[in-house]
Amino acid sequence: MTAPAGPPGGPWLGAAVLCERVIVDGDALSAVHILEQITAAGPRPVELTMLMLIVRGAARGPIVAQIVARSPDGELVAALEVIADLPETPDGCGRVVVPIRLDVVRDGVYWFDVGVGDAIATRVPLRVVTAR
What we know:
Layout: E1 12-25, E2 28-34, E3 37-40, E4 45-55, E5 63-70, E6 76-84, E7 93-103, E8 108-116, E9 119-130
Parallel strand pairs: 3-9
Antiparallel strand pairs: 1-2, 1-4, 4-7, 5-6, 5-8, 8-9
């Protein structure tokens, strides 16, 4: 793979993880309990956090990021949009912490489409198992 010369396009998604919470301590950032699967007590809302790291690249101005969550059968269960202010340097990385209230409707894999700018940058799965 050949790296491009000069600053890349952008913006770029450096990371997107679902977790219980995020701790910010000065310049340090910690995602607590990164989630791939959760057990929910029946159909009810579940509180999660998504941590996104967005790299500016050659993009200018505030960046719009979107999160769209769908249930296992494709039903829209959450949609959020946030504005990310990024550092001015091409390698500047903005930290975006987004609380999410997910309406759990059934067992299965919930997909979170994460968009940066005008494009879907990644999809993050979360398996939900309801307690019996």
